[in-house]
Amino acid sequence: MSTNKIPKSIATRLNQDTINWQTLLEETINYFNCSTGTLHFLKPDTSILELKAQKGIPDFLIPKVSAIPIGKGMAGIAAERMKPVEMCNLQTDESGVARPAAKETKVEGSLAAPLTHNGKLFGTIGIAKPVPYDFTEEEILSLMQIGDAICQKIS
Predict the structure, then answer these.
(1) Distance of CA 27 to the CA centre of its chain
(2) Cα separation of 40 and 76, whole Å?
(3) Which of 32, 69, 145, 155: disulfide with 5, CB 3.0–4.6 Å?
(4) Comparing C-alpha atoms, which of 153, 125, 148, 151 is closest to residue 32?
(5) Which of helix, strand or coil describes residue 94?
(6) Are 90 and 104 in contact (CB under 8 A)?
(7) How many CB atoms are located within 10 Å of the residue 43 CB?
(8) Domains, the chain, ranges and CATH?
(9) What pTM value is reported for the model?
(10) Is the four-CA dihedral 93, 94, 97, 98 of positive or negative sign?
(11) Distance separating the N- and C-terminal Cα atoms of the chain
(12) Which residue has the higher pLDDT, 90 or 47?
C-alpha cells in the first residue's frame, strides 16, 4: 500500500525509533475527528488481541477490552475477517457484531480495522464517534494504510 493516505503527523510518529502507541492512537483518533479508539496487538502464538492503547473507554470496560478473542466484537471480527468492520450506530445495532458491553462506551459511528501486512494479522485499530456516522471508503482506506504502516513497525 502507498502511504499517500497517511497523514503527515502520523507518518512522522511512525518514523521514530521508539513509538509511543498512545500518542499515535490519539493522533489517529483526532485525524478522523473521533472521540474514542483502541489499538490491539495480536498476542504471539494465540488468538487473543491484547490492548496496547486506548482513549475514551470507560474504566469499568477496560477489563473487557484488555484481551479480545478473535471473532468476538468489532475488533475480533475485523481480525477474523481480515477486513474492516463498520457500524453507523453501534447503539442501535442488532447484528450481534458489537458486544453488549460496547454500547456502554456511548459511541455510535464505529470502525474497526485489522492491522495486516503481507496477508499476516498483527492486531486491530478501532475508532469511533459519539454520533451516528458512515465512514467513507477513503477514510476506511486511510485507516487500513495506517494499520499497514503500524504492522511494519511491530513486525
Answers:
(1) 13
(2) 10
(3) 145
(4) 125
(5) coil
(6) no
(7) 12
(8) 8-154 (3.30.450.40)
(9) 0.89
(10) positive
(11) 16
(12) 47
CA 8 to mean position of chain CA atoms = 19
- In angstroms, the CA 86 to CA 98 distance is 10
Give 152-155 contacts, CB < 8 A, sequence gap 24+.
152/117, 153/14, 153/19, 154/41, 154/115, 154/122, 154/123, 155/117, 155/120, 155/122
For cell 487473543, name the residue. 48
User: Which residue is it, cell 499497514?
Assistant: 148
8 Å CB contact between 139 and 114: no
3 state SS of 155? coil
- What residue type is 98 in one-letter code? A
The amino acid that residue 1 corresponds to is: M
DSSP H helices in the chain: 8-14, 21-31, 62-65, 73-81, 137-154
